[in-house]
Amino acid sequence: MALSCPTCKRNFSIYFAVNEQFAILYPTCLCTNYIAFKTVNIKKYTYFNPNCYHQIFLEYVLSPCLDIVKPQRTFTNIDPSSEIKERFLFYKKKYKINKEFNNITEITLFNLLNALESNYQFNQFDLEWLKNEMLYTIAASYYSKSFNRDFSLWSLIKACSCWRKAGFPDIGMQMIESVKSNDSKVMAAILTTRGGACKDLKDLNTAEKCAWEALKYRVSKYPYSLLGAIYYLRGSPEKGDEYFKKAFELGQSKKEQDRVIFKAYLTAGKSEKDEILKYLSTHNPKRHLSLIQNESFKQAA
């Protein structure tokens, strides 16, 4: 099925995967306003309104029926044009993406990058997909644009968190370093996120100061978890576990704590790592074994 873009007059080609579970909307048109790559849950037949690309683009929902479109071509035969490829490579460089992707993931990612460039809002499904694919630089850029649009400090906090997860705590720190709020809950989150960035940058004294300041505004699991990680990084896991115990009492799961401790262990110095392993071998053999296995797996990967 082909349709013409009213802006640039190029044709859209709409293809559907033959497994009858996913539809791949693949337009050859390069007009930004009408690019509508999207993966949508479908049944055997899909109802499609060619006049509402943006609704599909933003909502992940097909519009009311104008045409009944049956599966026509397998997705594996779709080969993006060189012009689209060039744009995709430009996006990857701009958003610091160094991974390679399969065809379906590449199509979905290209769609989201076009949406980001066009200042469209992501839905929760989009954000979860980015998280699952560990594409934190894109999520960070999205939250940064959201902050510039609505001035929500939560968007800024999420942007900083994503930059940290992407391995760029310095960018996150620049965004949140001097931010303040009259809302105690928001201010506690700002200080905890700022402290996390300081921890990532190995400024442990400032990170600890931020954690204690955050607790003055609001007692929650997050500052205590941050303090636990700081003391693990300092090679004082026994002290760190005191704070993790408080975080657990405030709702942090053991699984979540395992992730925080594993990250702290990986980024700790050699002598600090030795202290962590020595302590855990006696006080928490299960976590000790998990650390060793996970580190070996990470090194092998």
Distance between the termini: 43 Å
Give the tally of β-strands: 7
Q: Tell me the β content.
A: 5-15%
Q: Measured on Cα atoms, how large is the radius of gyration?
A: 23 Å
Approximate shape: globular
Give me the secondary-structure category.
Answer: mainly alpha
Strand order of the biggest β-sheet: 3-4-5
**Helix-strand pattern:** EEEEEEHEHHHHHHHHHHHHH
Portion of residues within helices: 55-70%
Number of helices: 14
Overall mean pLDDT score?
A: 75
Main sheet?
3 strands, antiparallel
Unreliable segments of 5+ consecutive residues: 1-8, 10-79
List strands and helices in order, with pairings:
Blueprint: E1 2-4, E2 11-13, E3 15-16, E4 22-25, E5 38-41, E6 46-48, H1 53-59, E7 67-69, H2 82-94, H3 103-117, H4 124-132, H5 136-150, H6 153-165, H7 169-176, H8 184-200, H9 204-217, H10 221-233, H11 237-249, H12 254-267, H13 270-283, H14 285-300
Antiparallel strand pairs: 1-2, 3-4, 4-5, 6-7
Helix pairs in contact: 5-6, 6-7, 6-8, 7-8, 8-9, 8-10, 9-10, 10-11, 10-12, 12-14, 13-14
